[in-house]
Amino acid sequence: SQPSLTIAAAGRSRPLQMGLEPPSRSQASPLMQPHLSRRSALAGALCLAPTLILPDSAIAADPFKYFPGARTSAEIDDAIFGALEMRGYTKSNTLFAHSVCSDEVNFAEKELIDLLRKRWGESFTLGGLAGVPFAGKAGLSAYAHHVPDEGKLLIVFAPHVGVGYDGSVGAIERAGVVAGSSACGAAVGAYKTLSKPGVNPPSDFGDMNDLQFDYIKMKLNPKLSGVKAAPNDMAFVTYQMYAMVKEAMLAQIAASPGIWDDCSELAVLGGVQINRYKNKDAFQPLMFQTLTKAGKRTDLYPSTFGKMPELAPLLGDASKVEPVVGGGLALA
After folding, report:
1. Overall average pLDDT of the 206-227 stretch
2. How far apart are CA 195 and CA 135, in angstroms?
3. Residues near 121 by Cβ (< 8 Å), separated by ≥ 6?
4. What share of the chain is helix, strand, coil (3-state, %, to 5)?
5. Which of 106-115, 174-183, 227-236, 263-272 has the lowest mean pLDDT?
6. Where is each Limiting CO2-inducible protein B/C beta carbonyic anhydrase domain found (predicted)?
7. Three-state SS for 282?
8. N or C: which end of the chain has fewer CB within 10 A?
9. What are the domain boundaries of the chain?
10. What angle do CA 248, 252, 256 make, to 5 degrees?
11. What DSSP string describes 151-178?
């Protein structure tokens, strides 16, 4: 019989392997299974068999099965620029801000936030854990007052999710880490906490040393109804996180009339940031709109990204779609 092989996560390295066929899920080592946490057991397993690193062809045939319409970071960067350049957005008159999770994977070189920074210049940070705009109205107003006179604002907001080497949702392989790692850790942690019996939000959440995480748990809790009907619970949770972040962002914009003191137009891109391995992240756009000082809103999504993907099968219920894709920019 042939010797068994342990398949290691590739992190972000790119070793060259030829002639390897991906194992079936039943044959895959523990490293290929979702939601891993026992590093010691995995490290022991690595000592028992030779280690191979799978090539790109071993990735699941459809790594974005639960996130249709996802595109590479470079494609999204180019699409944003192409759409906004026609509206007069330039590096000299535009100030970029992002509301993405604090996780370092979201700021990797040559991925979306890095590309947008290089494209538009300086950036303002609005987001905290899970991409929620914890800077609030005060932070948004401060950002807007930094814009060039009669300039333009560009905001990108997104929760993030890991898609593992085997296509599992909610975990990624990080460079130098033997076991899989949760992403988004805040979203996964909140979901696990809320799934425990006896949890009584919001009274159980009042830790002044963990304000962001408690906020996420309180806002996520009412959105979890229907999770069992969805084909993948972590994909469902990710879409609920997106809805949460979008609601907060749109509410803050509408409640901050002062942002128009120096700004002539605002562009907002919302979506899901998908972390993978080897600098192969992607972004699923779910909203792309502009709003002028006069209150004119323009939906740039169809002309930039095409038809909105069908999300009802992924959410388990058509009634869950509107909170994700509905709503839009509005003046106070």
Report:
1. 88
2. 28
3. 91, 94, 95, 96
4. 35, 20, 45
5. 174-183
6. 72-290
7. strand
8. N
9. 71-162+194-325
10. 175
11. EEEEEEEE-EEEB-TTS-BSEEPPTT-S
